[in-house]
Amino acid sequence: MTLSGPAAEQWAAAVAAVRCTGADDEVQLICHVNPDGDALGSMLGFGLGLRRLGYTRVRASFPGEFAVPGPYAGLPGSALLAPETEAYAAPRLVVVFDVASESRLGGLAGRLAAAPVSVVLDHHASNTGFGTVRLVDPRAAATSVVADELLARLGVPLDAEIAECLYVALATDTGSFKFDMTTVTVHELAARLIATGIRPGEISRRIFDSRPFGAMKLTGEVLGRAVLEPAAAGGRGMVWTYATLADLERHGQPPYVLDALIDPVRSVAEADVAVVVKQVAAGEWSVSLRSKGAVDVSGVAMSQGGGGHRLAAGFTAYGEAADVVDTVRRILDEHLS
């Protein structure tokens, strides 16, 4: 996919899809499995926007275990959330958020075929092009940028509740406004959101700077087993570590606390590539990849059925943790040789 945003006709089709849906019709919002701040924030912010327009039957769901990560549990619009089993079976409209491929929709993927129209909001360059109407902008720092634009085109004014959801999404996917995609446009959007009266300091403390003591201990243990391989990734260096279900059980922590592990790992000065392998079931792992800029990790992820961005990507793997790392190492060497 080229780095260009949605065409005018795609925006017009998305607006028409919403406006042609009756106020009492069922609208199903869906984001990806194990949702992060951008997925949840974009979905709930848009859901609140639909409610402001008078839509009465709006549900927001994600596949898999119905567990909202602690930092996002209090987001405005959380009352719209329903588990996968309670998602509308045959909605009039489906809107998908922050999903690069249908495989990330799990058991909810069938809702796209069940609905007359589906609108996909995303910012991953690896998006596979599913859905009836596609608003995919790889230049956007977060899916919330796309959601904000569609809300504006629908005539929904920003209020503090919508703004908090979109701000959480934006701050999450820019690493608290640190990553390369943090542009002038990002800061302008953040300024508009803050102008509604939300408190960015309080939000940042809740999202980035509040962790259970057990999670801190778990992080220390997992970082302690990290391995640095200076010769890997074509001599650019790779650092990796892994976390198991036994680690979570030993420290009494839910799976979402592992999502933040990639941040301290990626800070290692001697490595361009960072890899964190997180166990999600027996023999099944969620793999997070990051690059400082010299390596395009999205290629690695896409070769394994995943996706993402040039500097941040991921995929699901099977086997042993060491075998997963061997696969990443081999693909990097092949691509960079």
Structure report:
- By secondary structure, the protein is of the alpha/beta class.
- The protein has two domains: 201 residues, inorganic pyrophosphatase (n-terminal core), CATH 3.90.1640.10; 124 residues, Diaminopimelate Epimerase, Chain A, domain 1 (Roll).
- It contains twelve helices and eleven strands.
- The chain has a six-stranded mixed β-sheet with strand order 6-7-8-9-11-10.
- Strand 6 and strand 7 form a beta hairpin.
- It starts with 7 loop residues before the first helix and ends with a helix.
- The relative contact order is 0.11.
Short note summarizing the structure:
The protein has 337 residues and is an alpha/beta fold.
Number of helices: 12
Low-confidence stretches: none
Q: For the record, what is the CATH homologous superfamily label of the largest domain?
A: inorganic pyrophosphatase (n-terminal core)
Named at the architecture level, the CATH assignment of the largest domain is Alpha-Beta Complex
Number of domains: 2
Number of strands: 11
Main pleated sheet: 6 strands, mixed
Estimated structural class: alpha/beta
Distance between the termini: 24 Å
Shape type? globular
Order of helices and strands: HEHEEHEEHHHHHEEHHEEHEEH
How would you summarize the topology of this molecule?
Elements: H1 8-19, E1 27-31, H2 37-52, E2 58-61, E3 93-97, H3 110-114, E4 117-122, E5 133-136, H4 143-153, H5 160-173, H6 184-194, H7 200-208, H8 213-224, E6 227-229, E7 238-243, H9 245-251, H10 262-266, E8 273-281, E9 284-291, H11 298-303, E10 307-308, E11 312-318, H12 321-336
Parallel strand pairs: 1-2, 1-3, 3-4, 4-5, 7-8
Antiparallel strand pairs: 6-7, 8-9, 9-11, 10-11
